[in-house]
Amino acid sequence: MSHTFHGGGFSLIVVLFILLVIVGAAWL
Fold it and tell me: How far apart (Å, rounded) are the C-alpha atoms in residues 6 and 26?
């Protein structure tokens, strides 16, 4: 799982943004 974090904090922000979009779409 250490190789998944090679992108740094940017990938984590992207994942959080995608989750936010999915939750927003679910609320709509």
Answer: 30
Is the whole-model pTM more than 0.90? no
Q: What share of the chain is helix, strand, coil (3-state, %, to 5)?
A: 85, 0, 15
**Domain coordinates of the chain in residue numbers?**
1-28
DSSP state, 23?
H
Residues in the chain with pLDDT < 70? 1-9
Sign of the Cα pseudo-torsion (24, 26, 16, 18, in order): negative
Tokens of 2: 């250490």
